[in-house]
Design a protein that fits this description.
With 109 residues, this protein is of the alpha+beta class. The chain is built from one helix and seven strands. Helices cover 17% and strands 50% of the residues. A hairpin with a 2-residue loop joins strand 2 and strand 3. The longest helix has 19 residues.
Length: 109
């Protein structure tokens, strides 16, 4: 049996498959990665700094004068917290171990 697909149908199927694959990865975009896992990272910011949070080299969001929580995978992971006020300033750049069903909190005052 032969099946004929027009170029327009092929393009449609490629777009449909690409969209489905992107939805399975859970990524929002390059300026806010959507991560998940069985551990929790909380960044509490009561300082005047506007913080950017990076997890394993991917930007996951901002924390400005409040707290923010992310579900993260367990294990050793790189966490970087930086401030952007005129010039880039790195505040924390370290590796943390995240345990299953545990909360890791980082405070800024």
């Amino acid at each position: 049996m032969k099946i004929y697909i027009s170029r327009l149908q092929a393009l449609f199927h490629i777009c449909l498959i690409s969209a489905a694959m992107l939805s399975l990865t859970g990524c929002e975009n390059s300026r806010g990665e959507d991560i998940s896992g069985d551990s929790i990272l909380i960044v509490r910011n009561s300082s005047d700094l506007d913080l950017e949070v990076w997890f394993d080299g991917e930007y996951i969001g901002d924390v400005r004068h409040h707290s923010r929580q992310w579900d993260v995978p367990s294990g050793y992971h790189e966490v970087e917290i930086s401030e952007l006020r005129g010039t880039y300033a790195e505040l924390i750049h370290d590796y943390f171990y995240f345990e299953d069903d545990e909360v890791t909190e980082i405070y800024f005052e």
